[in-house]
Amino acid sequence: MTAPLIYLIAGEPSGDLLAARLMVALRDLTGGAVRFAGIGGEAMREQGMESLFPQADLAVMGFAEVVPRIPRIMRRLAQTMADIRERRPAAVVTVDSWGFTGRIAKRLKTMGSAIPRIHYVAPMVWAWKEKRSFQLAERVDLLLCLLPQEPAYFTKVGLRAVHVGHAVLESGADLGDGAAFRARHGIAPDVPLLCVLPGSRRSETSRLLPVFAETVARLALTHPALQVVVPTVDTVAEEVRRAVWPVPATVVRGTKERYDAFAASRAALAASGTVALELALARLPMVIGYRVSRLTALIIRRLIKIPYACLINLLLDRMVVPELIQEDCRAEPLAAELARLMDDRDIRAAQLDGAALALARLGLGGETPSRRAAREILSLIKERLET
Prior knowledge:
With 387 residues, this protein is α/β, with parallel strands linked by helices. It has helices spanning 13-30, 42-46, 63-66, 70-87, 98-110, 132-139, 151-155, 178-185, 202-222, 237-242, 255-264, 275-281, 294-303, 311-316, 331-343, 345-362, 369-386, and strands at 5-10, 35-39, 91-95, 117-120, 142-145, 161-163, 193-197, 227-232, 249-253, 267-270, 286-290, 323-325. Helix 4 (70-87) packs across helix 5 and helix 9 (202-222) packs across helix 15 (331-343). The longest helix is centred in the middle third of the chain and has 21 residues, at 202-222.
């Protein structure tokens, strides 16, 4: 019997990491009797899957930012559908990026496909657009949720939704080797090192790299030996490499380098996103900065229902991690917050304690989130084969 083919679609680097861990779990649970195809990035490639096209073509966020990319995205949508029809997988698993993956699910449903449609990472209906829960119920057969409160939003509209946990807990972000990183890159043990993470989409890095570089320049005035390390990913690697930093900078790629960089650093300056949970797991104090276009910001402020951008702050319902968003995302306040984190032990300890509490609420211990997700996927495939 031919090993089942699972078609995975991850539209951005955070989804790429989730899908790569899912691939490992599916192989483990099936004894390797599973195949993969689809769209992803470098983490999925490390697991042996060649992407149908570059993930960077889909890694865009924001209303104004998406518009000029629509023709290319629509071509990629048609290309993906043609590939699914040709391969006839046992299941299609879409990971996050609902703007693109939701259209895949809709087209599969419209064409009457019997292929199980599974979506991993629930859209944040608790933050805005709660009516999207009906949209998911119409398009997918199973929803795998990261947060414990999420399934209730979908089960009430008839969608099979399961909390599997947040895969950042199994990322290994807490296992970095800081001393080895410094030795590899010729960074002395006593050099203050700042980890800078300007995002994984071009729409993010184009706005954040200049302000983050200016922030580093200001911070260097009070920390003259300062150096920076910039972990990056495929989607924005070239842009990040071209950036000009006012202090010595080390640009790295790959999961091991990323987590070793976390362990070697004193603090982090990061774009808003899943990276905040990785930094919390690594026990690296952080400041979050984020900007979108003015049009996108105007629309979001009219629609959004949550008081914070950082998931750690949302989980605790209080400001634990400094977040400077939009007009507040400027070099002077960012540098001031970073200086406090780098120099004040009490401020560092308070943030780390709060971050640990947030991670506990996500659920530590027991079976990994990826294995729980893999079990749900295999169970649905088995059910469909038996009916």
